[in-house]
Amino acid sequence: MCVRVLLCVVSIIGIVSTQDQDGILLIADVVDVVETTTEDNTPEICKVCDCGDGVLDCTKRKLVHSFTLDEWDQLKGLNIKEVDLSGNSIEMLTVISELPIERLNMSNNRIEMVDDWCFKYLENLSVLDLSRNELEDMNKRAFWGLLLPDSKIRPLSKMRHLSLAYNDLHVIPKDAFAFMHNLRFLDLSRNPLGIIDQVATGTLTELPFLRELLLSGCGLETLPDGLFRSLRRLERLDISNNKFTTVPAALNEAITLNFLNFDKNPITNLSEKTSISSLIRLRELRLCNTRLQRIGPGALGGLASLETLYICNNPRLTTIDEEFLNWKDDDGTDLWPALKRLYLHNNNISEIDPDFLFRWDQITDASFHDNPYVCDCNNQWMVDVLVPLITRINGSAADMICTKPQDVRGVSFAQLYETSKTLVCPQSADTAELPGSHTAVVLGVLIGIFAAFPLVLIIVLLWKKGHFAKCRKKVESESEEENDAL
Question: Transmembrane residues, as ranges (predicted)?
C-alpha cells in the first residue's frame, strides 16, 4: 500500500513539475494529504510498553505514575488479557478502564496507596499481584466492585489469586475481601501483622472457597480460635518463620489441610500429641530450621494420610522417639502412616530407628545425611537394610558419616556396607577402647577386694565371739595395776 502511495505521489510530481507556479502549489497540497492519511494511531501506552498477542508488557520501564483512564481506553481494541507493570516506581495505583484483563502484575513497585474501587471495571480479573510494594494501610474499598444503580456492589467474582506479600501491612480491615468471595489463594506473607485480631479473623472467614493461605514471616505468636472454622476448603497453610513456641490449638479445626509448613519457628519440643495430630488429611508436613530438641512418642501420631515428612536442619534435635509417628486404633492396634518421602538430614540425631516406619519398602525418596551417627550394633540395620534401600531409590549413603566409636570415625555407611562391616555392641566397644594401664588398675582393684574379703570376715567373727572385749578388759586390768603401783 505504501509503495502505491509513493508511486502515485512521484507520478503527480512528475506531471505538475512542468506546470507553472500554480502547479507547484498543487504539489504541496498533495503532500499534505499524504501526511494526513499516514497519521500514527498507536496507543500512548504501547509507545512506552510492548503490546501484542493480548499482553501488555511494561516491566522495568522506569514508570512513576499509573496510566490515566483515557490512556487505558486506547487499549480497548487490542483484547489485552495480561498486564505486567512490575519493576517500576509507581507510588499510587489509580482506577483502570473496562478491559478484558485477567492477570495484573503490579509487584516490585513503590505503591503506597490503591484508589477506591481501583479494579471495579475489571470483571474478568482473576490474578492480582501487589507484592513487594510499600503498602502500610490496606484500603478496604480498593477491592470492591462496581457500584450498581440499585446501590448494590458488583463483586469481583472471577478473582482467584491475590498476593499482598512483602508490604508493610499491620492490620487487615473489616470487609477488605468482602467482594472477592471466590478467592482461592491469598498471600499475606512478610507483613508485620503481629497478631490476627478479631476483625482480621472475621475478614478471613469471609473467604469460604479459600484453598491456600500464606502467613509466613508475619511475627505471629498464636492463631485465634475459630480462624479455620469457616475455611472448610483450605488445603495448604504456610505459617513458617513466625514466633510459635507451641503448635497453635486453632489447627484442630483445620481438618481439611493436606499441606502444613511449620518451618523456622522457635518451638523446642514435641513431647506429646498436639493439634497437628488432628490433621487426618495432611499429606505433607514441614518441621525444618526450628529449635526442636526432642520429638516424643506419638507426637505426630494420627496422621493417617501423611506421605511426605521433612524434619531437617534442626541442629538441637538429638532425640526422635522410635514411636513418634505411631498411634493406636480403637482396638489397640498399632498404626503408622504410609510414608513415601522421609527427610531427616542435618539434625543432631545419632541413629535412624527401624521402628520409625512399619513399611520402609514403600519409601520412594529420602535423605539422612549430616547427622552425628554412632555406628554401633544398634545401627547395624542401617548398614544391612537402610543403605540398600537408599541405593534402590537412587539416593546416596556416602554422606552418612560415623562419628563414634573411634575405630570407624569418619567412615560412611556406604563404605560399611561395601565392606560388610559388623558393628560392635557398646559394651564390647567400651572394653576394647580401655588403655592397658586402665585395665591393670581395674584388675588390681578387683583382686584387692577379693583378697581383703576373708580378712574382714575373720575380724567380724572374732568380734561377735567377744575376743575384742576380753582383750580390752585385760588391757584395762594391767593399766589399773600399774596405777596402784605408782
Answer: 440-463
